[in-house]
Batch of 3 targets.
Target 1
Amino acid sequence: MKADDFKALVSCWAEVMKENRDYLIDLDSVVGDGDLGLTMSDGFLAASEAIKQSSETDIGKLSYFAGKAMSTAVPSTMGTLMASGFMAAGKALKGLNELDLVGIAEFFNAYLEGVKNRGKADIGDKTFIDGLYPAAKSLFADAAADIELLTAAIKAADAAHDAFLSTKGMIAKHGRAAARGEKSREILDPGAAVADLMMKGYTDFVRKR
C-alpha cells in the first residue's frame, strides 16, 4: 500500500459509512441519540477530502492529516475517538511510504491503540475496541504466515463481523448503554458496528486494487 492506495482506502471508508448511515443511526438510536451515522459519514468524508489532493507520500503524515480533519469536522465523542485512531496510526507510521501486510496490521493496531487510549476502554467493555481487536490480531497472524492480501482482508473482516455480533450478550461499561446494566446485554454495540464496517471497507478496497 502506497500513499495513493491509502487515500483510496480512506475514500472507501467514507463511501461505506455513507451507505450505512441509516443503519448506524438505527443501531445508535437504541442506546444513544442516534447521530452515529451522521458523525461517521461526515467524519470519514472530511478525512478523505483532506488528503485526496495531497501530494504527500508519507502514509503516516496522511493518516495524521486525515485524523486532524476528522476531529475538526465531527468533534463529538465518537468522532474524536475515530480521529484519535487516525492520528495515533499517523505517528506510528511516520516516515513510511509503503506498507506491506505487516505494515497494514500495524496501522490497524495503532488505530486501535489510539482509540483505546483516548477512550480509556479495553477489550470486553463492549465498544469499538471489541470489533477491531480481532481483526488486527487476524491481520498480524496472516502477515506472519505470508497469507495473500485479499484472503487476509476477508478473514479480518469476518473476525470483525463475528466480534460485532458477539457484543450482544456483553455488559456495556461506557456511554449511555452502561446505564442499562444487565439490560445492555440485549443490544448490539454501535461502536463495534463501525469497526465491522471499517473492515468491510478495507476488504472492498483490497478487491478493487
Target 2
Amino acid sequence: MSENVKKTGGWRTNKWVRAAIPALLLHCSIGTVYCWSIFSQEIADYIGFSKGATEWAFSFAIFFLGMSAAFLGNVVEKDIHKSSLIAAICFAAGMAGTGGFIYYGGMHKGSAVALIGIYICYGFIMGIGLGTGYLSPVKTLMLWFQDRKGLATGLAVAGFGAAKAIASPIMQAMLNGLGEGGIYKMFWILAVVYFIMMFVGHLLLKKPDGWHEPQKSEKAPGILDVIKTKPIVNYIGIWLMFYINITCGLALLSQEKMIVKCIGLAGSVGIISTISAVFNAGGRLGFSAWADTMKDRNTIYKIIFVMSIALTGLVIVTGGIKNGAGNTALTILVLVLIMAVNAGYGGGYSNVPTLLSDHYGMSNISAIHGITLSAWGFAGLTGNQLATWIVNHFGETVEVDHYMVNPVGYQTVLYVTIVLYIVALVLSLVCVKPTDKALEAKAAKKAAK
C-alpha cells in the first residue's frame, strides 16, 4: 500500500469504509439466496407445482453462481466497480422477475411459463448477480487487510452466512403480514431494498491507492500459467476438497429441518435453523481468523474434515438420528453434528481465497477464485439432489410426534458423507502441498534445533 494511503486518512482511504462495509452490504444481500427453504413451499402452492419442481430454482441459482464466478472472474479482476454494479443489477432484477413470474403463476395455475420464468430469474439472472457479487469485494479486502487476510475475507463471507439468520424472520413476517399474494409482493419489496444496499456497496468499494494493476502494455500471466506454477494436482486437490465440503454440507443441511423433526424437536425447528445459520457465519469468521495464525492454511481444512468425520462417525455408530427422539444424549449429539457441519461448511468457503493467494499469489486471485467457485456450482446441483435421492430410496416414512419422517433415509445420508469427508481429508494430506511460507518455517525450525 502506498504512503499516501497511510498519511491521508479520512473515509476515502479508510479500509473499513472502502472494503469491509461494502463487502458486508454486498454479501448480506446476496446471502439471502439461502433463505429459499423459507418460501419454497409457498411458491410451489401459489403457482400450482410440486415443491420438488420449484426446488430446481435454488439448485440453478447455486450452479450459475459458480459458473458466473468462473467465467466473469477476469471482469472482476480488471474492474471491481463494473462487476459490483453487474451484481447489484442482476441480483435485484432476478428477484423482481421472480416476483413477477410468481404473480403470473398465481393467475395461471400450473403454467410452465411461470415455472421456467422462475428458473431463469431466480436461477440464471440472480445466479450471475451472486457470482459477481461474491467475488467483487474479496480481492479488495485482501489488499486492504494484507496482515489479516483471513479475518477480512472471513468477515465478509460471514455476512453471506449471517444473511439467512437476519433475513429469515423478516421474510417470514412479510409472508404472514402482506396477506393474499404476499409471496410475490415480498420479492418486489426486497428487490428494491437489496438493490439499494448493493448499490451503496458498489459506490463505496475501492482498492487501496498505490495498488498497481498490470497495464494494457504489460503481458499479465494467464490463469493457467499461474496455476501451473505449482504441480497441477495441487490445484485439483484444492478444487475437489472444496467441492466435497460443499456437497456434504448441502446434503446434510438440506435435510436439517426433517432431521430436527425426526429427533423430536419439531417445535424448535425455527430456533435451531437460526442457531445453525449463526454457526455457519461463525465458522466463516472463526476458521479464517484462526488460519491467519497458521503457517499453512490447509491445516484448517484438515481440522474441518477430521471434526466432520469424527462427529458423523459417532452419529452413525449410535444411530443418533434413528434413536434420537426421547434420548437427550443422542439428541444433543445430532445437534452438535448439525452445528459442526454448518461451521465447517462456512469455514471451507472463507478460507478458499486466502489459501489460493498463499499458493498462487495475488496477481490473478479474482480469476482463480472464480474458477474455483465452479466447485460450488456443481455442488449446488449434486448436494441437495444426492440427499433427496437417498431419502427417497432408502428406509420408509414413519410418524414421529405427528410428523412423517424417514429416520433410516437421513441416517443413510451420513454413510455417504463420511466416505466423502474421508476422501477430502486424503486429498488435503496428499495433493495440496505446503506453501513456500510453510516450508521456510519448517526449515527454520529444523535449523534452530
Target 3
Amino acid sequence: MKTLMFGWEFPPHILGGLGTACYGLLKGLAQQGDIENTFVLPKPWGDEDQSFLKIIGASYVPIVWKDNNYDYVYQRLQGKMSPEEYYHYRDNIRYDFRRIGTDDLGCVNFSGRYPDNLLEEISNYEAVAGVLAHSLAFDIIHSHDWLTYSAGVFAKQISGKPLVVHVHATDFDRSRGNVNPIVYDIEKRGMDNADHIVCVSNLTRQTVIEKYFQHPDKVSTVHNAVEPLKDVETYVKHDHKTKVVTFLGRITMQKGPEFFVEVASQVLSKTRDVHFVMAGSGDMMEKMIKMVAQRGIADHFHFTGFLKGRQVQEMLADSDVYMMPSVSEPFGISPLEAMQIGTPSIISKQSGCAEILTHAIKTDYWDIDAMADAVYAIVKYPAMYKSLRELGMQEVNNIRWYDAGLKLRKIYDSLIRY
C-alpha cells in the first residue's frame, strides 16, 4: 500500500502539536508493514528523520515549466531533490499555474510556517498537489488539518483515489466559537469531499458531526499517543526552594492562559512556596504579562518564551505540576509528554486527552477553585505527588502510536478497492 500524505509541519521544526502528531502517526503506520508513506511538506529543512517515510518538499516541486539544464538544477537543489525527480515532476505539469509567483526553477518559495499570507500559501500548495497527483503512484490520500484539505481534494479529483482528512482541530476550537467563515468553508469542503474523516478525539468527532454536518458513519476517532523517550532517565528534576507549576503551549485564547494566571494568583494567596512558569509564545503574551503584574505575582511568575526540542522535556522534567487549562483542546499531547517524564498533570475536561487519561486530574477549564485546590494538594502532599507521578508514567507508557497506526491502516483497508 502506498499513501500520499499532505502535512504542514514535521519535527524537529514544529510550531505546535500538529507536527508531533504527524510524526507519531507515520511511525505507527510504518510499523504495520507493507506500507510506503510519502509525506509532502511545504518546506523541509533537511534534518527530518526519513527512516520510515519519504518527504517531498513542495518548495522543490516545479509547477511552472522552466528550461534548465541538468547541472544547473543539480547545483540549485543541492541534494534537496535529485534532478531526475525534478524533471519527472516538470514533465507532469498539466495546468497553467503561471499566475503564481515562482523562482527560476518554476517552484514556489513556501515559508514553512504560518505567515500573514497563509491562504495564498494554501492555494499554492494545492497547485503542487496537482503536479504530484499526476506524477506519483499511490493508493490513498491523507490530508492533515485544514491547511492541506484543498490539496487533498485536488489530488482526489485528479487520481480518483480515496481521500482521508485528519481533523487535528477545527476553527471552533481555535476561535472559541468566533469562526472565520473562509476557514470554515475550507474545512467543510474538505470534509464533504473526504471518503473518511479521522478525528483525534470523540470531542472533535462530535464537533465534526454537529457543526460540519457529517454523517456519523463517515467519522472515526483515532486518539493520539506519545513517542517513547529513549533517554528519559537523563531528564532530572533540580532542587528548588519552591515548587514549579508550568503551562507550556501557545499563549492563545484556545489554550486558556488567563485561567492559569488566575490559578497562580489564588495559590499564591495561600502559599509563597510555588513558582509559576508560562512557556511558549502567542498573541496573548503581552496581555498575560500585564495580567500577572496587575495580580501582583510577578515575583513568582516567569515567562520563558518559545521552547523547542530538548528544552521542552527539560522544562517538563523540572516541573512539579503541569497544567493545561484549555478552553477547547481537540487532543493535547503535552500532558502525555509531561506524565511520561514523571510530572503530574492537571487538564481541562474540555480536552480530547481527558478521554484516555485516568491518572491526571481533570477539571473544567473555568473552575479556578478546583484547579487551584489541585495544584495546592500536589505541591503540599508528597504522597499525592508520588502516586500521580508513578501511575501516570505507567499509564502513558501504554499509550502507543502503534495502536493509532493500526486503526488508521484498518480505515485505509476499508476504503481501498484492490
